[in-house]
Structures
1.
Amino acid sequence: LGQLLRNHFEQAGHTCIGIDRPIPVCQGGPGVDGAAIAAAGAALKREGDIACDLSEGLPEGALDGVDVVIHMAGQGNPDADFQDVNKNNIVGSQKVFDAAASSARCRRVIFGQSK
């Protein structure tokens, strides 16, 4: 979903920075090959994109010059254990919110998650 939104906003003339895990992961869904989507996402990385583990926080200055954060990441696998959901959905999201709140320019966070 994040990649689709990115494509839409870039086509509308906005500059986007992708932030993803060092090795992208996608759990897929009915009829959707998650591994293929993750591989495609890795292949679509652009200069300026950031690879990090959100549960450890964003790198210093990651949101410099950013007006809006669209956060669509998280562990959506219905079979994931609570530790993985907590790390990726709760702790990781809180780190994104904290970084946005500390940013001099960011005024809005748009958040969506499957869990």
2.
Amino acid sequence: EKKEAEEAANSTARVAELEALLLEKEKKEAEEAANSTAVIAELEAQLQAKENKEVEEAANSTARIAELEAMLQAKEDKEVEEAANASASAAARVADLEALLLKEREAA
């Protein structure tokens, strides 16, 4: 009986020890899963931030392109206007010279 009681006590102690090991293992696995979830969430947040930055940079680039195109168009418009003014001025000068030449011919 004493031996059986000793074996039963040892068996009970072993069961308690195995249960404690199992609980420790489950706790560790839960902690690792939580850490893994946190890491995944952090990586997803970093990826989202990167995507947001890329979208913002693309929008800024598009806005800059539109701004440069508008500046170029304004420059071209100004050059066309200046050319038209120069042409009108030259035509007026030619008309003046032709009138002067006609006047001189009539005088001669």
3.
Amino acid sequence: ADENDIPTASSNNSAASAESSTTQKAKGVDNLLNELSRPEKLSTISKTSADWDLFKAKNADASLKEQLENQAMGKEAYLVKKDFLERVDGRRFELERRERDRERAKR
């Protein structure tokens, strides 16, 4: 028997490590493919948005569109209120700044 025929500890370790790295790569690829093949998880907001768009498409009559536009522009609409409050805040700031400037000018 030659020395080459006798398995040594180092040759067993290198063969085992090469085999395990190949197995790990295969497992990694399998995991990646599994993740890609899974259906995408929807957040509550994206699901609600999709449902609302579907509802509007199914009920796309003129009266619904008119109601939605009126609600969006009415006094109770969020964006209308927000814009109004921002304008009021800006005006108050300007008035307070003018008052501060007057006080400084008096000194």
4.
Amino acid sequence: GGQDGSCGNFNGDPADDTTQAIFERVGVRVGQGEMLFKNRATIVFTPEMEDMLRANCPAQDLLASREHCQKELPQEASTIQMNSCLFDWCFGMNEHALRTAKTYATPEERVALGVE
């Protein structure tokens, strides 16, 4: 018990392991005092992700995402942190996002990722 995060809460119910459900339980980012690792991963928000967010996140979802991220992130959060949160909230790790992201990848990136 008590374990939760990007892989879910290990209760055997995949329905409550969506990105939004996890964010509701544990927040959008791990707090500084809750880190299990020595360093944080670098947050990357690419121009392709920006294009995808603008083109494929419905306006009502983007508005709800912005409200949620502003509430969850520290006030001093950077633009990259906010954009990353918006992207995660709009798309999470769902198949639609993966398929759509492939449309923004260059041919070289597709080959490198083995998706061609």
